[in-house]
Transcriptional regulator
Amino acid sequence: MNSNIRYKGYEVAPAAQLLPNGLFAANLTIEKTSASQGQAYSFDALDYFFDEEHALAYAFRWGRMWIDSRK
């Protein structure tokens, strides 16, 4: 289950990847929505969770904090 969210001029795409051990890895892609910038950042396995929704929520929160720290 993946969904993109716009936040302060960025497209935040959290993703939860099911691993063979049954845990979900919290992954994240952040891309500047400005056409002139177009720079994307990808973060894999920020942390691991037993629940897919927790992994997605964590990745989105982490992305918001990353964006807020850059401004």
Remarks:
- The first strand starts at residue 5 and ends at 7.
- The two ends are 29 Å apart (CA to CA).
- The chain has a mean pLDDT of 92.
- Residues 5-70 form a domain with the Double Stranded RNA Binding Domain fold (CATH 3.30.160).
